[in-house]
Amino acid sequence: VQLVESGGGLVQPGGSLRLSCTASGFTFNRYAMSWFRQAPGKERELVAVITSVDGSTNYANSVKGRFFISRDNAKNTVYLQMNSLKPEDTAVYYCTARVSGVPKWGQGTQVTVSS
After folding, report:
1. How far is it, in rounded angstroms, from Cα 26 to Cα 14?
2. Cα 31 → chain centroid
3. CA–CA separation, 114 vs 27, rounded Å?
4. Rounded Cα gap, residues 39 and 30, in angstroms
5. Strands 9-11 and 17-24: what pairing?
6. Helix, strand, coil % (nearest 5) of the chain?
7. pLDDT for residue 53
8. CA–CA distance, 25 with 100 (Å, rounded to integer)
9. What pLDDT digit, counting tens, does each position of 49-61 carry?
10. Are 55 and 71 spatial neighbours (Cβ–Cβ below 8 Å)?
11. Is the distance from CB of 84 to CB of 77 less than 8 angstroms?
12. What is 32-63 written as a DSSP string?
């Protein structure tokens, strides 16, 4: 199982970024996918989830209305569109899937929101 995130970087407050996570080694369309983030000195927190069956989504209150998770099962890829970014969104962002009951994580991608 491998999860590879990309798309992070430095962006000004109010800007946008789109993160991607490409999966391999498991049947992607059978699993819910999630994005977590971890800011310096803080615990890792759930940002967004998308189910496998109907693509329904759920978001942390802190990002609701600004971030949008989606998936392309043909490309084995999950996305996180992040709009109206704030300095407090600065963190390492990880995608994850629970495959056969075992959580699998990518290496993370750094997002820094700063002027």
Report:
1. 36
2. 14
3. 38
4. 30
5. unpaired
6. 5, 55, 40
7. 82
8. 12
9. 999 989 999 999 9
10. yes
11. no
12. -EEEEEE-TTS--EEEEEE-SSS--EEE-TTT
Residue whose tokens read 């750094």: 110
Q: What is the DSSP letter of 115?
A: -
Q: How many Cβ atoms from other residues are within 10 Å of residue 68's Cβ?
A: 17
Q: Which amino acid is at 14?
A: G
Tokens representing residue 54 in the block: 């109907």
Cβ neighbors of 106 (< 8 A, separation 6 or more) are 3, 4, 5, 21, 94, 95, 96
Backbone angles phi, psi at 87, to 5 degrees: -55, -35
- What percentage of the chain reaches a pLDDT higher than 90? 97
Please give the radius of gyration of the chain, using alpha carbons only, rounded to the nearest integer.
13
Letter for the amino acid at 5? E
